[in-house]
Amino acid sequence: MSPATAVEKAAANSERITSLHYRVAGTVPDKGRLEAEASMNSEPLTMGMKLNAIDQGGDGQLEVRFVDEVMYVGGSAIDVEKLDGKSWLSADSAVWGRGTADNQSYGVLPRQIEGNPAVQSTFLTASKDVRSIGTETIDGTRTTHYRGTVTMTGIGAARDAAVSTAARERQIDRLDQFIAMRIKGTLTVDLWIGDNNHARQFRMRGDTYATRSREDKALEIIDGEPLDLTFTFLDVNQPATIEAPPSEDTADLAAQVDEIQAG
After folding, report:
1. Does residue 180 fall inside a structural domain?
2. Helices (H), 94-253
3. What's the pLDDT tens digit per position in 123-178?
4. What's the angle, vertex CA 90, arms to CA 89 and CA 93, rounded to 5?
């Protein structure tokens, strides 16, 4: 099949993902190198992640959970003096895996991993130059490697060209998550698809932009640092157990958020 058709088939399967166990590795703006392993369920939306910010050494390890729109944070990245003898900080309302306006991790997670990887893996459906690179083995699975470039304009055009309400809503979701990553210009996406037409791995690379306050307090857009992240799907549609920590072992994050050394 053509590269575009292969990407569309993999996207259709990703849209049916109800739970996912995945691994993340790479570099994000302002935080540097990171490694993470996470599990998520889509209904209800829950997520648990163990994150290691490599460039922060022993102070960069976090465990983050989102359950019932509450975020729980533990790990060595948190100053123990701020925990008041507890093991976890909690904050609500907190949402992961949705769009630009809805995600809220209080700065704990880099915005590029606040999005749902099942959605991010479908970005190539809006590419006009997707092509096959060859075959590769990913964690023992034979895959075909595809590559293409994506822009906000391209995803917007795909949204406008959608012929059904459901297709338009999917493109709106993709556009929203693309905007959230603050990509400056073009995002290069590599996608590895298994013989069963399921995404096995994807990589996102591109320049980003950032904002800063001017003397007149207006926000100014400036160049950000490069993004380079690889997501590997380990288990698909195997429900994950993600539970809230005991309430007696959590302290309120609201007063502590500025003290977290997030990865």
Report:
1. yes
2. 117-120, 152-161, 165-180
3. 999 999 999 999 999 999 999 999 999 999 999 998 898 888 888 888 888 999 89
4. 155
The total domain count for the chain is: 1
Residue 259, domain member (yes or no): no
Cα end-to-end distance, the chain, whole Å: 41
- Give pLDDT tens digits for 59-117: 668 999 999 999 999 888 777 777 778 889 898 888 898 777 677 888 888 888 988 99
**What local confidence, expressed as pLDDT, does residue 56 receive?**
72
CATH number at residue 59: 2.50.20.20
Domain hosting 110: range is 3-253
> How many residues can be counted in the chain?
263
Is 69 strand, coil or helix?
A: coil
Q: List, in order, residues 6 or more apart from 229 with CB less than 8 Å away.
A: 24, 25, 26, 27, 28, 112, 113, 203, 204, 205
242 located within any domain: yes
Rounded percentage of the chain residues whose pLDDT exceeds 70: 94
Q: What is the pTM of this model?
A: 0.90
Please tell me the distance from the alpha carbon of residue 172 to that of residue 167, in angstroms, as a whole number.
9
Residue with tokens 């359950």, as numbered in its chain: 67
Question: Six-digit token pair at 62?
Answer: 């976090």
